[in-house]
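>> Question from a student workshop board

For tomorrow's exercise we were told to take the sequence and the ligand below, predict the bound structure, and bring the output to class. My setup keeps failing. Could a helper post the expected result so I can at least see what it should look like? The ligand is magnesium ion.
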Amino acid sequence: MAKFKSKWICQNCGYESFSYLGKCPDCGRFSTFIEEVVQEKTEVKSKNSSLNFVNLDSLKYTKIKDVKTDDSIRIKSGMEELDRVLGGGFVEGSLCLLAGDPGIGKSTLILQSANNIAKQGKKILYICAEESTSQVKLRAKRLNADNENIYVTQQNCLEEITKQIEELKPDFLVVDSIQSVFSAQIVSSIGSISQIRECTNILMRIAKQYNVTTIIIGHVTKEGNIAGPKVLEHMVDCVLNFEGEKYKTTRILRGIKNRFGAVFEVGVFNMEDSGLVEIKNPSELFLSDRENIMTSGSTVIAALEGTRCLLLEVQALTGVSPYPNPRRVARGVEYDRLLQILAVLEKRVGLNLSRSDVYINVIGGIDIIEPAADLSIALAVLTSAKDCIINHKTICLGEIGLNGEIRSVDNLEARLKEAQKLGFERAIIPKINNKTVLERIKKIDIKTYEVSKIPDAIKFIDSHPC
Ligand code: TYD
Ligand code: MG
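>> Workshop helper replied:
Here is what the output should look like for this input. Compare the format with yours to find the bug.
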């Protein structure tokens, strides 16, 4: 008879404990433990071996050379931006997780791409675990995405879903959302980590067994994480994050994990009345408000997001603080990175901001994670503090070391080419020691100013007023 046990499980990483813990020893988060009732697993013991956790009969090995591989076939989603993030389309039989805040447009994105895939003659099964089929139909009508190859079912019991998959044999499966699906085999409540983990596990097996390309939609928690993120990230083939600001229509799709392509690729969309519209040249959109505004504290960086180069404006505002502890606000850049840059500016160029508030904002709602943005951030802060304007047709690139030295950046050529394409005339870049890179850069129609220390960059600003 099956035995049931009560366990406390961290809802962030799946760590299990027999008692409540305030802080998870594995992921270090606080107040994430929830009591769940789980079924005890019975061990299958092999008579002849001490390796009682392996079924020896199933142990068959073969030379790696002889392992057969199916050529993974890509299914194009009909949306270039989505295909780019996926590395060229959905891989047949793969399982992909799409995560994002409620209301960001996950269902819209998937329904639009499902419609495009349905047009290619593929059968789609859309599991409405959260909404009614009529709600999905309304959205489909609005998006003009009610192709006859799309089947919908309002179901959240995994065992029933499995039966329907076996019956319909779809090519493409959408589960909207994984937090609303439950397995009758698990005693834990719906949405708990045990349920999410087990349901994803079963869906993964179905995807591989029936070669059904599966997308599961997942909500993020208040802290911005996918519920049970670590557990799910390990299990699925791809993790895509759909992000955007609450009061803006721009949406960014970011690849966090991809077993079949590059990670950190981004796709940019605009949420309009008739659904999501792809933005093929996002740099133009992000810089569109900049032309007419010539203010201090504004620089532009050519940031690499996956294989794509995006031109983004970094804005800084400094001023005497009315607070006892001056504020540092970093939107779009890492907070610790900002503090480090401010410390370097104080030590190496004598810019004292200990009594000033410092605000940094990257326009467009994109997070810049690469250190190549250091120089851009530093010069935005400097020009705001000194109230001077950097020539607006200039881009700034370079990582700043603790000694104030400007370090090289990856893929300089691609970044300069993108800047030149968008009409930028000058670039402040780190000193180039590689002759081949130097020769290639000379061919690009953009004036480059090599700097090895922050004071060199300041000299450039002083000698190139607007
Ligand atoms: P939805 O895809 O339901 O979000 P999620 O599945 O992530 O919860 O999208 C919800 C929002 O998108 C809602 O606020 C309305 C807006 N929207 C549009 O602006 N245009 C559209 O064509 C659609 C379908 C939705
Ligand atoms: Mg939805």
